[in-house]
Specification:
With 460 residues, the chain is α/β, with parallel strands linked by helices. 23% of the residues lie in helices and 28% in strands. The chain has nine helices and 26 strands. The N terminus is likely disordered. Belongs to the glycosyl hydrolase 30 family.
């Protein structure tokens, strides 16, 4: 019998006689306070059992760039209300690796200008919100909100050197638009506007690795934070912007689409009619599921996909498994990472723009009146992936998962880290503990108990 070592709460290895066990086991449970808890097989084992299988010798599918969330005006505003010491603790907890509860986020999104998570008192803003058209962008400036965002991202980089940063534009300056669509005579100004933003960041030492030209291009609401952009326009703008980025000596990729999975024909048109798109960004809100990512990948080999937005709303009815599902399922379908909306929120839900996502919460919730903060369960649930799956890991499918119509069941995904170690994340959507056997091709099975209503990570 092999002897498996588990990490227990006191960080003292406990040796148990089992067939084979994870060397590290952590879980976040819906029935306990937030935290990455230690776990190990119980004695006696639960009466309920489940079998999964994974081939660790198989070729991995897509490479995973990481997991994370979004920097928004709301996030920087609420973080600014905390003490400098608390700010540093939060940054290290979100992005570092030195703290036991640090979750090492490595795939981050940042709003380019205003979004629906811009505090209402900011008013409508962009980097060139001039009263009259300014096609030469002579009035371009990051402005105070933009400088605030840049400052926080620079501080983030003091705690990590491995973040992939995606910028997403919600709306160009108002003078560029008519009927909430781009005035076509300003298409080159649009591309130049983006290059000025990227250059300002680069000059400050921040490389924006990728960019989406328009968040949710099929959504038209408040012109302050939306713009309607059809696929034909997107393809032309992709070519124009990619050329301008290249001429400026920047290495920023363009990711197409940045909207729901129910219209895969949109990014397909962009890819077929432009040369600038390196990947596709998808959101979760249509209810269409994630098969579009799988099908799109099959039709477009070599084109990466990412799940770039799904909201957090812990205080207004979010289910415990909402976050782990919108991470696990896109990755199982072929995505190279997943990001939550948003990084930091207000305990009073008072930092959205009118008509925006008032109910959205963050991985970190801040009480601005008391200058205190809370790490939410979503923080720990996302950490089940980000803390243990290394940047550059390869995805390995885990077979045997199943979910019934009532929402109960088991799902799992696997990864092979760059150091050769294996990571398996298991969702137990039953109200009872389950003894899980993971059959490994060519090796001993791994046996362990998975807590009721939990997200559990095994590091093998």
């Amino acid at each position: 019998m092999a002897r498996g070592a588990f990490l227990v709460t006191a960080l003292v290895p406990l040796h148990l006689s089992v067939a084979a066990s994870p060397s590290l086991c952590k879980y976040t449970s819906g029935s306990e306070a937030g935290g990455l808890h230690s776990c190990s097989p119980s004695d006696p084992a639960p009466s309920s059992t489940w079998s999964l299988s994974m081939d660790p010798t198989d070729d991995t599918r897509q490479t995973v760039d990481g997991f994370g969330a979004a920097w928004t005006d709301a996030t920087t505003y609420v973080f600014d209300s905390l003490s400098p010491d608390d700010q540093e603790v939060i940054l290290e907890t979100l992005f570092g690796s030195s703290k036991d509860d640090a979750i090492k986020l490595e795939l981050m999104r940042t709003t380019v200008g205003q979004s629906d998570l811009t505090p209402s008192h900011y008013g409508r803003w962009s980097f060139d919100e001039a009263a009259e058209p300014d096609p030469d962008l002579s009035k371009f400036s990051l402005t105070e909100p933009g400088e605030r965002m840049l400052s926080w991202i620079m501080r983030m980089q003091e705690h990590t050197s491995s973040v992939t940063l995606l910028g997403s534009l919600w709306s160009p300056p108002g003078w560029m638009k008519q009927d909430n669509q781009l005035r076509w005579q300003y298409r080159e100004s649009y591309a130049a506007y983006i290059v000025k933003y990227l250059t300002a960041y680069r000059d400050a030492g921040v490389e924006v690795d990728a960019l989406t030209l328009q968040n949710e291009p099929l959504h038209s609401a408040d012109p302050a934070w939306t713009m309607l952009e059809d696929a034909r326009c997107a393809a032309i703008l992709t070519n124009l912007t990619a050329a301008a980025i290249g001429e400026a000596g920047l290495g920023t990729e363009i990711w197409a689409y940045d909207h729901n999975t129910d219209h895969p024909e949109y990014p397909q048109y962009v890819l077929d009619n432009s040369e600038g798109a390196a990947a596709v960004a998808w959101h979760c809100y249509s209810g269409a599921g994630w098969d579009a990512i799988k099908d799109f990948g099959a039709s477009n080999p070599g084109v990466r996909s990412y799940m770039t937005e799904c909201w957090l709303h812990e205080t207004t009815g979010e289910g415990f498994f909402d976050l782990p599902k919108f991470v696990l399922r896109p990755v199982a379908a072929g995505a190279s990472g997943a990001m939550a909306w948003t990084l930091g929120g207000s305990a009073d839900l008072d930092v959205s723009y009118p008509g925006g996502c008032e109910q959205c919460t963050g991985l970190v919730q801040v009480d601005m009146k008391d200058a205190t903060y809370e790490l939410t369960k979503d923080f720990y649930k996302l950490g089940q992936f980000s803390k243990f799956v290394q940047k550059g890991a390869g995805y390995l499918p885990v077979d045997g998962g199943y979910v019934w119509a009532d929402g109960t069941g088991m799902e799992a995904v696997g990864f092979r880290n760059l150091d050769g170690g294996l990571v398996v994340v298991v969702l137990n959507m039953f109200d009872n503990d389950v003894q899980v056997t993971l059959d490994l091709a060519g090796g001993e099975p791994v046996v362990g108990d998975v807590k009721a209503n939990s997200v559990t990570t095994w590091v093998l």
